[in-house]
């Protein structure tokens, strides 16, 4: 199985494979979050049994950001003519000529695109960490099954904003790690991940969000997690659920607090985001309201996605408010 993500030995020296210490422009990581290959400036090619895992015709970096041309992922299942990711934030980010399985896709920030039974692509995914700013990955492909010819749990990360940062200026805890690409547990090959479920065609947007969120009850908590393959944190769960409804939220609770209209307690509806734990940087925890005074949340390390009550003491006294993100 390990051969499915295997670098062709004959191209290692010629096609720009770099040490992780140099800050790769693109990376391949296994189900444990370990670095398999890292692409720097120039060309890059990585092969598996069924074709290209990742191929880049050219890549460069500057203090402005990272640029790539002719990027092919998972044997061409995903292709982009050009990718530019700024060194900081999403302003000026651009992906041109993006196609998924031969179909053109609009490259909007934090767009989630299904790729198979349990695999998906996130476009221009941004995470925010208090005190560190934002980290962006241009294209993030997560393989949750073997349909793409990759080992389950494999991640392809293309256009890493932090590659534009001089090593001496990088912070100890890089915000791109909040995208959930480190410390992954292996995904069992026979596991059935309730991912990208068939969406309800009836009901409000909020009711549809609740129906999706309920599919992930029991998925483990993972700080920085934003998918059911590796796990969720509280803002990652909301981001992932609403991405399937075409609503693109930032992966940070303090930011999501400002990504919708405020809702008073008497007017709460299913799908509203409820926030807790006030701080100078905004609320530090959240959940998805499901009705009847209950909400779905990813609580903390060692726990799983579950249903809790707003009347529980810890939530009753730390409640901040609610936002309707649609």
Describe the structure using short key phrases:
seven-stranded antiparallel sheet; 326 residues; 4 helices; mainly beta
Explain this structure to me?
The chain folds into 2 domains: 2-179, no CATH class; 205-324, endopeptidase fold (from Nostoc punctiforme) (Alpha-Beta Complex). The protein is elongated and about 55 Å long. Strands 3, 4, 5, 6, 7, 8 and 9 form a 7-stranded antiparallel beta sheet that branches. With 326 residues, it is mainly beta. It is built from 4 helices and 21 strands. It has helices at 205-214, 234-243, 253-256, 313-316; strands at residues 26-29, 35-39, 44-48, 51-61, 65-73, 78-86, 94-96, 99-100, 103-104, 111-114, 120-129, 133-142, 155-160, 226-227, 231-232, 261-263, 273-276, 285-291, 294-297, 306-309, 319-324.
Write the layout of secondary structure elements.
Elements: E1 26-29, E2 35-39, E3 44-48, E4 51-61, E5 65-73, E6 78-86, E7 94-96, E8 99-100, E9 103-104, E10 111-114, E11 120-129, E12 133-142, E13 155-160, H1 205-214, E14 226-227, E15 231-232, H2 234-243, H3 253-256, E16 261-263, E17 273-276, E18 285-291, E19 294-297, E20 306-309, H4 313-316, E21 319-324
Antiparallel strand pairs: 1-2, 1-13, 3-4, 4-5, 5-6, 6-7, 6-8, 8-9, 10-11, 11-12, 12-13, 14-15, 16-21, 17-18, 17-21, 18-19, 19-20
């Amino acid at each position: 199985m390990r051969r499915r993500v295997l670098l062709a030995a004959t191209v290692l020296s010629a096609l720009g494979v770099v040490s992780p210490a140099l800050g790769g422009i693109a990376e391949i990581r296994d189900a444990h979050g370990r670095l398999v290959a890292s692409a720097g400036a120039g060309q890059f090619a990585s092969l598996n049994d069924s074709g290209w895992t990742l191929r880049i015709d050219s890549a460069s970096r500057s203090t402005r950001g990272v640029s790539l041309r002719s990027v092919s992922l998972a044997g061409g299942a995903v292709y982009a003519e050009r990718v530019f990711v700024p060194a900081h934030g999403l302003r000026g980010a651009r992906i041109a000529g993006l196609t998924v399985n031969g179909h053109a896709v609009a490259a909007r920030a934090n767009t989630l695109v299904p790729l198979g039974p349990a695999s998906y692509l996130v476009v221009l995914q941004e995470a925010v960490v208090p005190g560190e700013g934002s980290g962006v990955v241009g294209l993030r492909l997560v393989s949750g099954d073997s349909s793409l010819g990759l080992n389950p749990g494999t991640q392809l990360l293309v256009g890493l904003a932090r590659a534009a940062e001089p090593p001496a200026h990088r912070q100890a805890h890089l915000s791109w790690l909040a995208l959930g690409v480190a410390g992954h547990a292996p995904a069992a090959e026979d596991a059935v991940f309730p991912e990208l479920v068939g969406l309800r065609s009836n009901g409000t947007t909020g009711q549809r969000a609740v129906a999706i969120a309920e599919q992930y009850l029991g998925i483990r908590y993972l700080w920085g997690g934003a998918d059911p393959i590796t796990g969720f944190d509280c803002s990652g769960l909301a981001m992932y659920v609403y991405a399937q409804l075409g609503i693109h939220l930032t992966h940070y609770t303090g930011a999501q607090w400002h990504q919708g209209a405020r809702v008073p307690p008497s007017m709460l509806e299913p799908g509203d985001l409820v926030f807790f734990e006030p701080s100078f940087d905004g609320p530090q925890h959240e959940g998805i309201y499901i009705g009847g005074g209950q909400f779905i949340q990813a609580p903390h390390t060692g726990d799983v996605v579950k249903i809790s009550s707003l009347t529980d003491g810890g939530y009753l006294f730390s409640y901040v408010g609610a936002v309707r993100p649609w």
